[in-house]
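Lab notebook, page 48
Experiment: co-folding of the full assembly
Goal: obtain a model of how the components sit together before planning crosslinking
Operator: M.T.
Materials (sequences as entered):
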Amino acid sequence: MSIIIDKVSHVYGEHTAMAVKALNEISLVIPDGQFIGLIGHTGSGKSTLVQHLNGLMKATSGAIYFNGEDIDADGFNRKLLRSKVGLVFQYPEHQLFEVDVFTDVCFGPKNLGLSKKEVELRAYEALKLVGLDDDYFYQSPFDLSGGQKRRVAIAGVLAMKPEVLILDEPTAGLDPKGRDEILDQIFRLKNEMGITVILVSHSMEDVAKYVDRIIVMNKGSILYDDEPREVFRHYEALEEVGLAAPQVTYIMKELRDHGYEVSDEVTTIDEAKEEIIRYFKNSVRK
Amino acid sequence: MLRDITLGQYYQADSIIHRLDPRVKLGSTIIFIISLFLFNGAAGYLVAAVFLALVIKLSRVPFRFMIKGMKAILFLLMITVVFNLFLTPGEPLIRVWTLTITKEGVRLAILLAMRLSFLIIGSSVMTLTTTPNQLTDGMEKMLGPLKKIKVPVHEIAMMMSIALRFIPILMEETDKIMKAQLARGADFESGNLIKKAKSLVPLLVPLFISAFRRANDLAMAMEARCYRGGEYRTKMKPLHYGRKDWIAYIMVGSYLIIGILASKFLPIVAGEIIARFWS
Amino acid sequence: MGIIEVKDLVYEYIRRDEEGNVEGITTAVDDVNLDIAQGDFVAILGHNGSGKSTLAKHLNAILYPAEGTVWVDGKDTKQDQYLWDIRQTAGMVFQNPDNQIIGQMVEEDVGFGPENMGVPTKEIWERVEESLKAVGMYEFRKSSPNKLSGGQKQRVSIAGVIAMHPKCIILDEPTAMLDPKGRKEVIRAVRALNDVERITVILITHYMEEVIYADRVYVMDKGKITLQGTPREVFSEVDRLRDLRLDVPQVTVLAHELRKEGFPIPRGILTKQEFREAIDQCRQML
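Observation: model returned without errors.
Model output:
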């Protein structure tokens, strides 16, 4: 169960004067069960890339293989692909339309042609996975708060039981509280379901805490693809493309620049704390 | 497909057509449209085509932008052509099974197709070279006298200008919602008409909700910027006719006269020539 | 009395069910008092639903108090004859950049406010030019707003308000929908207005790093002001802020964590330089 992206390019408005190369020969392997952060500023091509993974957009050149099958081949079941590679768009609450929360979540599995019982079972499970209380199930989705609406929308995709879950800026427009809750929930359900999760974001600080691997995109190409600490090591280059490492990385650099022998390969507050304490303990010993 | 609709899209360029008073452009578009209905033969349409080509050339808007608007009405165009082709009684040309294509049918189909395309391209020239704000300003001023009989001219003009501003935004939104529902396994294509209509619910409900939310936000933003209808309002870009505008009026007038004369006399003159050549 | 004074403000809205029967009353703003001096940079923080946006809408007479009084430049917002004066004195920028731009061309949008106020044509042009220059968007004056980035759109919105020559500008979460680059652009423009033009700024946000430069910070929760003071005073209350689920800058949290470990670091560290100086102090003590 993996996705292989082989030299995929995408050109908007091909053969016109305004042709824009949104993706430029991207090659990636996305194995099972990874938690990936896909980072880039607005217009870097990250949203375009993820829409290729479930066949909503077609590559201008190159190929994408899902479990070894070319998704552009004739006879490939694209509808099934969309259920296996679940894509949650930005501001997903804008897609809610049913009279109540539960019916809305049923929409996805119903489209897969499952039995009524199976549909409802999946909807129930999905709503539980996103941590929504039973009290809300028969309320209109439009009466919920922003964060709750977003959970319902995520459940709508989860109910299709995807093997890969892609979330495009799942925290956009939420306040810090809502953001932390959603990210914690995604992290939890990733561990419970053991699926691959791709988190598309422009915030390094958001993803640093959670992911195993960070892919940085810039101008339609891949700039870095590595573990978070390896990627953040290039914070100067990241800044040039409009991104930034977490603030703690800069704090440690400030200390290093003033003669402290601390590591600047630090990405979280806890690591920074440990590192500073270690430094002082060593100094005392000397 | 949705992005292809150019109506209401402004194309920024520095041309004589862009600089014309919007009233001239509005008036000329109306005259042009009327002329399309006055002309009934090849001669008139030849004049119209030359005139349109000249205006497009002067506008410095690439031609493909003009015909982009056509894609949206292609379906309508095809229906018109097919209906007229098969359903016009007259002298039969070809007979396919129970359907007959008549000479009159071919003529009418071509005429209507031309009329419709010219109409769309002609109006696109106006919308592509005039910002909606200018357009509504022009309309407001042209319809100004109607205020005396209590027609809310300013309000209508403002509504139109806002509608035009939000068309591209709502188009983009439609595209996004459509993709989001496709990702949830929605199917907008297969099935019969009823099923297809039903499949639009997941698209239309969110779209309406979003449109209402935007309308609400916008009303608040306008109020916060002291908007209170047309009273007391001054204009950033007040309209004054200049020399180029009068020249444009004269040119459009001449076009109309030449067109009418051409459709009346050109076939006769052409007939004479052919007749003389024949003998 | 300052440019804006709020006394014992209460605002409630009535929730109704589908038949229009009263279901309950929500108190969105609960007994709030504010006094903002001309030229100040004030930040109001709080998560979604804390009442901060409702409060903001009172400052520009979009909402009227249920109890208490709001004065803008000495004028009571409840009195109809002052309505247009108040809206001109206290301009407002909203969250969604797409839903507040009226014009189809940047300069036409900026001219919208002055047009409504009946400013003579020649002066409108002067105001549009200076306003666009103030936010650094002059070169885009002929562009369509649809072609701009989120940060640029918000700067146009700000210019649209400045062109009305307000004494005070209220920004209701202007950066919530923007990416980090757009956020920086907007905040830089806002700070310049305050520093250079001496316009009073009231910034409503949930991003803590945007309020570091404010003269005064108010934190709202459940319709009340729960914390207030200079940024340093407010950020000293790390635990309190975390309880309110607000984001504290990482440097402040790191300093706080180290102090808990026994490091003699002062409260309310706001920048990495301050942090490094505090660590320098610690090292000298060894």
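Interpretation: The interface with chain A takes residues 62, 64, 173, 176-177, 179-187, 201-202, 205-206, 209-210 of chain B (CB under 8 Å).
Next step: discuss with group before ordering constructs.
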